[in-house]
Design a protein that fits this description.
The protein has 2 domains: 177 residues, Bactericidal permeability-increasing protein, domain 2; 186 residues, Bactericidal permeability-increasing protein, domain 1 (Super Roll). Strands 1, 8, 9, 10, 11, 12, 21 and 22 form an 8-stranded antiparallel beta sheet that branches. It starts with a helix and ends with a strand. The N terminus is likely disordered. The longest helix is centred in the middle third of the chain and has 46 residues. It has 12 helices and 22 strands. With 473 residues, it is of the alpha+beta class. A hairpin with a 5-residue loop joins strand 10 and strand 11. Helix 4 packs antiparallel against helix 5.
């Protein structure tokens, strides 16, 4: 049950929260084209793309190409004199991933550098050919029949005008004529070979990368007895950035969904990267839910004289100012009970975060009493700090302030709760603050940062979100 005094407080905070708010997804993982390039390069290595290039069957490709030549019989007789024709070295120069003109697709360019050799019993000289060709493909967003949007790769082929084939050494006139004929056959054959042999490897590498990106978002975040799971919704390509739009669900210890975050509205307020490789943007209400789950509200009961005798002495002195008889009732088992009335409210500003809580404080003369001497409703606030430690995002309150105190009920008559302002703040600081910081200490796993290849991160705040980016080296 919310008391009347809480309603005014919450309405004020809600108004402050909504100033300047715009629609945005619950969570967005934004990746630069540079990150996409690095991931795809690694996946190509995993698929041993160099081995694929070195196994290109050039001689078979020439034989197929010669079948349509008007002088096919002559060419075939020449090719029969070639003992072998094979790739001796091959590599992919640095991949390029660039936005296309419509800003909603990315072009992948893979420059290939190939050296091949052939020999013939007609000549003792080994003929070396240097071949350059560029494979290309397009990353775009594709929507399936079930309206599930996903990243897809299409139009894999060679780049028009990128093919270069040349002799690596000077040859005799007759051998040069043979080499030129081989080159003329390789000119149409090599792009076809690249399309049939390399494009499937490029597509497989892309699918592995796409699967890895999805797996990054599926790791649940443990939050004490609850856990938060991100839900992949759709990708968006905007210029040179790939945004993965994510929803979120909070599960309790029994595996039931207790809170669902989804994307609302047709237009999205997507973040910009500002020259950073990646950016994880977590919307404010998701951060609030994480904090609430970590704190896990419950009643905190402390026998003050046993744990904090000096604070107990100060409490007795403060109550004595209000009612001497009540102060004398406080015994060795005097008890303080603290209850968080509602979930915390998070107020973000550029570079700063503040958490407001509604707290109920009950003071009992001893541990046998069922009724408190009085009950206070406290509007408390704390400055929230974020930092990372061992792949964990850790939160902590650096202080707790009793901004307003309300007398909710009293067995010692009506009094001005302001008289207890100092001792109330001390009780919260001595009991509630270390308890809450201990719960927050468990932190939030940020394993996706390590999985993306970054060792550390930097944290920042906007008016609407918590932002995680790579730490500058």
């Amino acid at each position: 049950m919310a008391y009347p005094w809480t309603l005014t407080f919450l309405c004020g905070l809600l108004a402050a929260k909504l100033v300047g708010a715009t629609l945005s997804p619950p969570v967005v993982l934004s990746l630069s084209s540079e990150v996409i390039k690095q991931m795809l390069t690694q996946k190509l290595k995993n698929h041993d793309v160099t081995d694929t290039l070195q196994k290109l069957s050039l001689l078979s490709a020439l034989e197929k190409e010669s079948s349509g030549d008007i002088s096919g019989n002559l060419v075939k007789s020449i090719l029969k004199q070639i003992l072998w024709l094979k790739v001796t070295s091959a590599s992919i120069h640095q991949l390029q991933v660039q936005p296309l003109a419509d800003s909603q697709q990315l072009m992948i360019k893979a420059p290939l550098d190939i050296v091949a050799e052939f020999n013939t019993p007609l000549f003792k000289t080994m003929v070396e050919l240097h071949m350059e060709v560029e494979a290309q493909a397009i990353i775009h967003v594709e929507t399936s029949e079930k309206d599930h949007a996903h990243l897809a790769l299409s139009e894999c082929s060679n780049t028009s005008g990128s093919l270069r084939i040349s002799l690596m050494h000077k040859l005799s006139f007759l051998l040069n004529c043979l080499a030129e004929k081989v080159i003329s056959l390789l000119t149409p054959a090599l792009p076809k070979l690249v399309k049939s042999e390399l494009c499937p490897v490029l597509k497989a590498a892309f699918e592995n990368m796409r699967g890895e990106l999805l797996n990054l978002t599926k790791v649940p975040m443990s939050l004490n007895s609850e856990h938060l799971k991100l839900d992949y919704i759709s990708p968006v390509i905007d210029h040179s950035v790939v945004h993965l739009i994510l929803g979120a669900r909070l599960f309790n210890s029994e595996g039931k969904v207790t809170k669902l975050f989804s994307v609302a509205g047709d237009s999205l307020n997507l973040p910009t990267l500002n020259q950073t490789p990646f950016r994880l943007t977590v919307r404010r209400d998701v951060v609030v839910t994480i904090i609430a789950a970590l704190l896990h509200s419950g009643k905190l009961t402390v026998q003050l004289d046993h744990v904090l005798p000096e604070v107990a002495r100060k409490l007795k002195s403060s109550i004595k100012v209000i009612d001497e008889t009540a102060a004398e009732q406080l015994g060795p088992t005097q008890t303080v009970k603290i209850l968080s009335q509602t979930a915390p409210v998070l107020i973000l500003d550029q570079g700063n975060a503040k958490v407001a809580q509604l707290i109920v404080l009950e003071i009992f003369a001893n541990d046998k009493d069922s009724r408190p001497l009085f009950t206070l409703g406290i509007e408390a606030s704390s400055d929230l700090q974020f930092y990372t430690e061992n792949n964990l995002l850790v939160l902590s309150f650096n202080e707790i302030r009793a901004d307003r105190i309300h007398l909710m009920n009293s067995d010692i008559g009506v009094f001005k709760p302001k008289l207890l302002n100092n001792i109330t703040t001390e009780i919260l600081t001595s009991i509630l603050l270390p308890n809450e910081n201990g719960k927050l200490r468990s932190g939030i796993p940020v394993s996706m940062v390590k999985d993306l290849g970054f060792k550390s991160v930097s944290l920042s705040l906007t008016e609407e979100a918590l932002v995680v980016t790579p730490a500058s080296s």
